[in-house]
Structure formats: C-alpha cells, structure tokens
Amino acid sequence: MDHKVSSACAEDRTSLRHTLKDGRQLSYAKYGQQDGYPIIFLHGSPGSRIAVEEEIYSHLGVEIIYPERPGYGYSSPNPKASFKSWADDIVSLLDHWGIEQIDIAGASAGGAYTLACIAFYPHRFRSATLIGSAAPPQTPNYRKGMFLGNRLAIWLSRYAPFLIRAASGNFARKFKKYPDQVWQQVSKQLCEADQTILTEAKKKGTYPVFVDHLMEAFRNGTEGHVADIRNIARPWAIPFTAIQCPVYLWHGIDDTLSPIAGAKAMAAWLPTARAEFLPNAGHLLADDEVILEKILSQILNV
Asked: What CATH number is associated with residue 252?
C-alpha cells in the first residue's frame, strides 16, 4: 500500500488547500520529510495549522499533515460542524490523495476529533494516538483538576450557550492585542512541566510559533473555536464501539487542561486503548522533543 503524499517541489507547505464537495476549503500544512511517511495530526482548541518544524520529523522520515478544522485559519467555516462532518472532511482529504489507510493523532481537543475519525471510518485508519486528549463529558470526574478557563467554557456551553461566542471573541481580541500578556495569564494555570516547556521554547526561539499558532486560529473570527466548544463540552455523539484500530493514549499525570482522571476513565472503556501515563508531565507532550520521538516511534512501529 502506498503511503506517500505527493508534493510539488515549489509548493508552500504551510498553506495548502483542499476543496470539499460542498465548496468549502480545508486548509492544512505539512512538516517534516517531503513525501515521507504521512501522519495526520489534529490540533487543539483554539488552534491552527501553524506548528514548530521539529527536526525529529525528518530524522524519522515522517511527514506530519496538520489540517485546520472549519473556521480556523484558512479553513472555511461549517455552520453544521460536528464530529461526523469533520471525519467526512478528513476522509475527503484521504480520497483526494489516494490514500486508503493512514495513522492519525490528535492533541487536546484534537483527540476528540481523532476518535470521531476512527469511529465513523474504522477501515481508513491504521492507528490513532491521543496526546493529552480531552475526555467526553460523560466520563466520570473528567473536570477534576481542570483549570478555570476550560471549566468556564464547559459551564457556558451547558447553561449559557449564547455567551460562548462573546467569550471566545473577547479572548481573541485580547490575544491579538496583548499576546504575551494572555500567554502569561494562561501559563500561570499550567503545571510546572508545561511552564518549563514554554521557558525552553523562549530560549530556543520557537516561542513565537506558539503565539502564531493561536493568532492564526482567529484569522477570520471565532467560528472554529465556538464550534469546538459546542462539540467538546456536550456528550460526544461518537460510536466508540465501532473503533477497530489500536488507540494509544499519552497523558501527563500533572495535566491541568485535560486532567488525568478523564484520561484514565477513557483508557478503561475505549475498546482498543493502550495507555502511557507520564509522571512529572503535563499537557504539552507534543512539544517535548523526547516524548514526541517516543510517540512517533510507536506510531511507526504499529
């Protein structure tokens, strides 16, 4: 089976587009070895296709495909965005490339959409990897230890959904105007391991990519973020029992954005789950070079 994703030599690998059947644009970026072993990686919420170009990608011979969900970056909004519609979008991308089966991974909220893909289209995915993944609201104690911002978004979605758009817009405006200040406020609610990762990113000069990642998320407004909150905060309409491929969970025990309680509960009831619960680690596992190499190596060895 051919796993290659064809690439034109002169293409801009950070601003690629695919036109969907309904005319919407699905934007994505590619990182790592051109025409290497492809792995789809789904961003968190809010998020975008902008990511750090890790040396480990080329070293391992992989090409990371980073699509943006509807309403983020250059991806067209989808008024009817759902877990199922996202799975449809990704399969449309696979059909466009002529790929029958692929590995997929998702971080934070991207973990939910990863599960949607492998549940609605179980034969199209070789494996799935959840990295600091959100947990379904139907999971016991999934909010235990969660930082205030995420708890507030869940509460608003349930009891005051009309305020979600205003809250998202307020965050976007503040971030665009005072990105460093907002990052500092958020980082105060992260665990020590995550704060260390951000400190190291500043030393290495990759910190601006964290800022650009969120800035791009709100390029055309808040539609992507609002849709994510609506989908993530309510019981997930995903047929979990249809999942067939191996599901690998990587989760930091000190995670304050997607607490460990939800991850452990998910690992217990997902039909094909295998979990790695990491001590002295938090939410930003994919930004830790050592952990990232282990994750990618596991995918390649499925």
From this structure: 3.40.50.1820
- What is the residue-averaged pLDDT of the chain? 92
Range of the domain at 71: 16-300
268 burial type by CB count under 10 A (0-12 exposed, 13-18 middle, 19+ buried): exposed
Number of separate domains in the chain: 1
d(CA 251, CA 98): 32
Kindly state the helix (H) or strand (E) to which residue 42 belongs, with its residue range: strand 37-42
For residues 133 and 108, the answer to whether their CB atoms sit within 8 Å is yes
Question: What are the tens digits of pLDDT across the range 136-195?
Answer: 988 877 888 888 888 888 888 888 888 889 999 999 999 999 998 998 888 888 999 999
Residue 75 within a domain: yes
| 36, containing H or E segment | none
Residue 81 phi, psi (nearest 5): -60, 135
| Six-digit token string for 19 | 């036109």
For the full predicted model, state whether its pTM sits above 0.85. Answer: yes
Q: Residues 156-179, buried b or exposed e (16+ Cβ, 10 A)?
A: bbeeeeeebbebbeebbeebeeeb
Contacts of 196 (CB under 8 A, 6+ apart): none
In a domain, 144, yes or no: yes
Interval 267-294: pLDDT, tens: 999 989 999 999 999 999 999 999 999 9
Task: Assess if residue 9 is contained within a domain.
Answer: no
Tokens linked to 271 = 């039909």
Residue pLDDT, tens place only, 120-151: 999 999 999 999 999 998 887 788 888 888 88
With tokens 């190291």, the residue in question is 200
Q: CA angle, 288 as apex, 263 and 285 as ends, to 5°?
A: 10
